[in-house]
Amino acid sequence: MALAPLDEEITLEQLNADPYPIYRRLRAQSPVLRVASAGRTFLTKAALTKEVKDNPELFSSDDPNTPMKPAFRAHTLMRKDGEEHLRERKAMMPALTPKKIQSDWGPLYEKLAAEYVSRLPRGETVDLFTELCGPLAARILAHVLGIPEASDEEMQRWSQRLIDGAGNFGWKPEPFAASDEANDEMDLLFGQLCDKRRAEPDGSAYSVMLNADDPIPMSQIYANIKIAIGGGINEPRDALATIVYGLLTNPDQLAEVRAQQAWGKAFEEGVRWVAPIQASSRLVTEDTQLGGFDIPKGDTVMTIQASANRDEDLFENGEEFFVFRDKNPHQAFGNGPHHCAGAHIARRTVGKIILPMLFDRFPQMRLPDPGAVIWRGFGFRGPINLPVVLN
Amino acid sequence: MVKVTYVAHDGTQTTVEAEDGDSVMHAAVSNDVDGIVGECGGSMMCATCHCYVDEAWQDRVGPRSDGEEDMLEGAACEVNDRSRLSCQIKLGADLDGLVVHLPEEQF
Known about the structure:
The structure holds two protein chains of two kinds.
Chain A: E1 6-7, H1 12-17, H2 20-29, E2 32-35, E3 40-43, H3 46-53, E4 59-60, H4 68-72, H5 82-92, H6 98-118, E5 125-127, H7 128-145, H8 152-166, H9 173-199, H10 205-210, H11 218-232, H12 234-248, H13 251-260, H14 263-273, E6 279-284, E7 288-290, E8 293-295, E9 300-304, H15 305-308, H16 343-361, E10 375-376, E11 382-383, E12 387-389
Parallel strand pairs in A: 1-2, 3-9
Antiparallel strand pairs in A: 2-3, 4-6, 5-12, 6-9, 7-8, 10-11
Helix pairs in contact in A: 6-7, 6-16, 7-8, 7-11, 7-12, 8-9, 8-11, 12-14, 12-16, 14-16
Chain B: E1 2-7, E2 13-18, H1 24-30, E3 50-53, H2 58-61, H3 68-72, E4 83-85, E5 98-101
């Protein structure tokens, strides 16, 4: 077999601005494509992205040279495989299960959401992205993790700096200087809270990890919290903004969602339509084949779940936001051992609590100019503003 | 081929023919059986393939696997002594005709 074709025309700028027309073309013409600008082999069909994520031995998350290492000052579970990954993940899981989220955290989420939604001014144009989506995602996460002492602003700033550092593939000094500063602040706060979280178990991720029978090393406890900060704000924030946009630009669907109270379906469709995490990388550990092409050991493949989620083989009119699909087998949360640990929290908070509350409080909410909404991102994607009139 | 019957929370029964060696979760997902999600693909990472093994089959299905207990604890619906993560039940001739019951919700 031959190597996959090489593309030297697609630019990161194009992908950042709007990758969807490109993915649509690739699904039809070159579902396995080496993209020079990204230095990765793009996989754009759902069957291929799933195959890779379901085979962690052949397609490893382990990347010893990732910029995530300096950005997080640790080798984190996101970039580990097998037992090592499992042990660190399991240390945190008791704080993140469906049951825990429903029974223990539910009332707190309701209270936080009510607080943030009720302070929005009625009758004015408000950027929901900056006024609600970001801060509320930050607040909920701070509680889940056991660091509610951190402010919304700190949580969001730390998160962005970790992300910028983790994506610093050019290894420039500035992003690492910024992530270092964030790490200093986080380490200081975690250190201050340690004794309290140990002495007064509260079910938060930090407390659960500290009080485990056989705790993971302190350095990895910190790393786990940081991974959750870096990976737990953008996604619910962008999901919420995307779904609100989808519903406001499709009033007939919004009416039906209200009538059926189908907020959970709206959530699933939003994250399918524009997946907050669009792409992931995996290192190829043995010579193999994908989609009829040779994939050599040492290659890095990129599963483009954003594209898999619009794959014509699985979705009719996948380019469109349509809540009432018969089936919605999207891959927005990934699959395999690295399946998103925050999936249940996102479903509960965004899908079951925040969306119905927001549309209940502002039944006449409008998006006066959908064209004013700016969408950005290749690795992470969502609107970066959402000016709505609240009524 | 091995027959498996899934009984949904509302009583609807779906019987599928699964391959030998397939898991109860995978057989459900690949046959579009509602009520089993199995998001993590069988890595015991999501607790969305919870099922209750029919009493008549409990002995033959056998005990929970290593680590299953912890993840099962986090399932959305009530967990009882018949609860299993269906990704951990491998199908073979001995389980031909297996019946499992599905919880009301998985997340």
